[in-house]
UniProtKB/TrEMBL annotation:
Keywords: Membrane, Signal-anchor, Transmembrane, Transmembrane helix. This is Protein trichome birefringence-like 19. One of its GO terms (molecular function) is O-acetyltransferase activity. The gene is LOC111442253. Pfam families: PC-Esterase, PMR5N. GO terms for cellular component: Golgi apparatus; membrane. It comes from Cucurbita moschata (Winter crookneck squash). The keyword Transmembrane applies. The keyword Thylakoid does not apply. The lineage of its organism: Eukaryota, Viridiplantae, Streptophyta, Embryophyta, Tracheophyta.
Length: 436
């Protein structure tokens, strides 16, 4: 609003040019016009229109200010799932067209009906969220390096993104080793590198020899991923479900407490203590890094949907439609984990601003809480198979609701030019006030 009110005076010639920072916003508005009137398509048609579109595209991306300028701010995190107005539209990919889907996420292969859970789209309150466009994403990522840091759910997202991009190009595997926990792919046509860096708890952790219990060193970096941040342009960090396991918490090389250890001589600190400290330490690693100066996205907690029992006690997720936001609110443990994340994210965001580092919130929790129908459930294996997680209500089917995460991410990437310009103007304004 401050920018809107100042517009009439800010655009007049200024002797000292102190409002030149608004120029990127005008570039963003121009980019909005181009993006909404000349949409990208793939494959590109060999026609005059396609050639003109290519010219416009090169101009937009060369400017470095590909942005969407919304008159009314849009909160992607708040909304509802609505039936797709075109239920017969082709899916962005299937298990037959994408090789990146892990078996336990391959719900279509194991008999899940296509109708129903794939025929919904996310509509934020007060605005429309454009569907994911592989061409736009890959153009934005040209000559960039992007990494996803996290656990099985982060890998779930990576596989979804690879499948969404597969309509345009498949990457080649350039991983430094055969370790499936640390993968790297390259999109050769775009010189774009995407990595997955595995971590269960964000901080250094070890599973006990008896299994099922973890030692978390809450004040120590997990160097398996922090050592690989150098040179990255973007980082998506997340964590969640692994914190439900019993844990011993260590600080300064000694046990300070636990979660679900049930020992008389160890203080029960609870799950939220470890969750908070783990995110704080992970953000500290990013803030202190000398080699990473990219944009950090924190992807918020992904809730599970077991009903009528825990995961190992017959619980399942058999619903066939999304919840409505007016009928189901985030609460209990899910809400506490979400709020804990938010508090630590805001803390890191403030610290980052002092150092010129950008932290962005990829807030997917509410959208995913409303999708109890999107998990593999019994469709992650053949019925006769003996598997440890028989009914999977934690991970997400591919294709499935998790594909929306890339819609969110692309929208935020396109908004970055505008947001950065607004932050510069605000920073300059605050600096000027402080100097008076």
């Amino acid at each position: 609003m401050m920018l809107h009110r100042q517009a009439s005076s800010d655009l007049r010639p200024c002797k000292n040019g102190k409002y030149r920072a608004l120029m990127p916003i005008l570039c963003g508005a121009f980019a909005l016009f181009i993006l909404t009137t000349v949409p990208f398509s793939f494959p590109l048609e060999s026609s005059t229109a396609a050639a003109a579109a290519a010219v416009f595209r090169s101009q937009i991306f060369a400017s470095g200010n590909l942005s969407i300028l919304s008159v009314v701010p849009c909160d992607l995190a708040v909304g509802d799932w609505i039936p797709n107005p075109n239920p017969n539209a082709a899916l962005p990919y299937t298990n037959d067209t994408c090789w990146a889907i892990h078996e336990h996420l391959n719900c279509l292969k194991y008999g899940r009906p296509v109708d129903g859970f794939l025929r919904w789209r996310w509509r934020p309150d007060g605005c429309e969220l454009p569907a994911f466009n592989p061409a736009q994403f890959l153009e934005l990522m040209r000559h960039k390096a992007f990494a996803f840091v996290g656990d099985n759910i982060a890998r779930n997202h990576v596989q979804s993104l690879i499948c969404l991009l597969s309509k345009l190009e498949y990457p080649i595997d350039v991983s430094p080793s055969r370790d499936e926990h640390f993968k790297r792919w390259k999109y050769m046509s775009y010189n774009f590198t995407m990595s997955f860096l595995w971590t269960t708890h964000l901080v250094r952790s070890e599973e006990s020899t008896t299994g099922g219990t973890y030692n978390l060193y809450l004040d120590e970096f997990d160097e398996s991923w922090t050592s690989q941040m150098g040179g990255l342009d973007y980082l998506v960090i997340s964590s969640g479900q692994w914190f439900l396991h019993p844990m011993f918490f260590h600080e300064n090389r000694r046990v300070i407490g636990c979660h679900d250890c049930f020992l008389n001589n160890v203080t029960e600190l609870g799950i939220y203590h470890g969750y908070r400290k783990a995110f704080r330490t992970a953000f500290k690693a990013i803030l202190r890094s000398e080699s990473y100066k990219g944009i950090t996205y924190m992807r918020s907690f992904s809730p599970a949907h077991f009903e009528n029992g825990l995961w190992n006690q017959g619980g399942n997720c058999l619903r066939t439609e999304p919840f409505r936001s007016k009928d189901s609110a985030l609460e209990g443990m899910n809400l506490e984990l979400y709020m804990t994340q938010m508090e630590e994210f805001r803390r890191a965001e403030r610290e980052g601003r002092k150092k010129g580092l950008k932290f962005r919130l990829l807030d997917t929790t509410q959208a995913m809480w409303l999708r109890p129908d999107g998990h593999p459930s019994k469709y992650g294996h053949w019925p006769e198979e003996n598997v440890s997680l028989y009914n999977d209500c934690v991970h997400w089917c591919l294709p499935g609701p998790i594909d929306i995460w890339s819609d969110f991410l692309l929208h935020m990437l396109k908004m970055e030019g505008i947001r950065s310009a607004q932050e510069r103007v605000q920073y300059d304004h605050e600096t000027e006030l402080n100097q008076r």
